[in-house]
Amino acid sequence: MINVIFLGFGNVNNHLFDALHKSTEITIKQVFNRNYIKMISPFEDIPFTDDVSKIKEADIYIIGIPDDAISSFSSSLPFQNRLVVHTSGGVSMDALSNKNRRGIFYPLQTFSKQREIDFKNIPICIEAENSKDLELLQSLGEKISENVVEISSEKRAKLHLAAVFVNNFTNHLYHIGSEILKVDDLPFDLLKPLILETASKIENLSPEKAQTGPAKRSDLKTIEKHLHLLGNSRYRKLYELFTEEIKQNYGKKL
Ligand SMILES: NC(=O)c1ccc[n+]([C@@H]2O[C@H](COP(=O)([O-])OP(=O)(O)OC[C@H]3O[C@@H](n4cnc5c(N)ncnc54)[C@H](OP(=O)(O)O)[C@@H]3O)[C@@H](O)[C@H]2O)c1
């Protein structure tokens, strides 16, 4: 049995809580959050505290709070020599206070509270200062995922950088697409099959092979037309940057 305490209860820790709670080999001993949270059915038996001095003893403490708050929060914990991990892709393990044994439990996925998540295929990137803690994190990860990998802080930072490109930036491009359509009362739904196919074809094709569009084909008249439609819009710069970048990648300069 592995005893776990959640420190912070945002998007990630909510999802980890739900997933780990289903395992018969995990006991969630407590949830801490700096502001009061009412534990709702069927979790009302799980103790909650908003007082750091009342945090109980556990095998693993999972900090799930914004990146910039991790360091000072970990220093504020009133205990020592216990295994404390955080769930961030972009924050190094060293950011955690060294009064406790440090580790990482980073699930490589995008989490929003309102979306259900199946952890089975989600890579869980782990790191620890010693082999025993690493084994414990491996074992914790395997309770919910079939893809638990040991990755150093340096490599995790690169992974996170790549993830920001493929997830956050792509999602922002969806937003730009929806804004462009809104002006002409066109529904975003029209783009959804395209978005889904773009994502699913990289299961079998490399991103480089999967690329299509006017920039790759060097359809200059179409590109000019798009720039004309954009006028002085703030999206123009992005259009030009992406077009130039794709051109360079396929060996044709604009
Ligand atoms: N969301 C994702 O898709 C995702 C994916 C992978 C990894 N991560 C990582 O997981 C971590 C948490 O992300 P999240 O999206 O779950 O964040 P989030 O939903 O914004 O987390 C909010 C939680 O952090 C607490 N909090 C905020 N500032 C705090 C502070 N200064 N001190 C103590 N607690 C504080 C909040 O407490 P109150 O309720 O009291 O405000 C709340 O419990 C981050 O390190 C992030 O990089 C996120």
Task: Briefly summarize what is shown.
The protein is of the alpha/beta class.
Describe what this molecule looks like in 3D.
The chain folds into two domains: 2-151, Rossmann fold, CATH 3.40.50.720; 156-249, ProC-like, C-terminal domain (N-(1-d-carboxylethyl)-l-norvaline Dehydrogenase, domain 2), CATH 1.10.1040. It is 42% helix and 15% strand. The protein has nine helices and eight strands. Helix 2 (67-75) links the parallel strand 4 and strand 5. The model has no long low-confidence stretch (mean pLDDT 96). Bound molecules: NADP nicotinamide-adenine-dinucleotide phosphate. NADP nicotinamide-adenine-dinucleotide phosphate binds at residues 8-12, 33-35, 64-67, 69, 73, 87-89, 107, 110-111.
Low-confidence stretches: none
Report the count of strand segments.
8
The total number of structural domains is 2
CATH level 3 topology of the largest domain: Rossmann fold
Radius of gyration: 22 Å
CATH 2nd-level architecture of the largest domain? 3-Layer(aba) Sandwich
Q: Strand portion, in percent? A: 5-15%
Shape: elongated
Helix content: 40-55%
State the end-to-end distance: 61 Å
The strand order across the widest sheet is 3-2-1-4-5-6-7-8
Helices and strands, in order, run as EHEEEHEEEHEHHHHHH
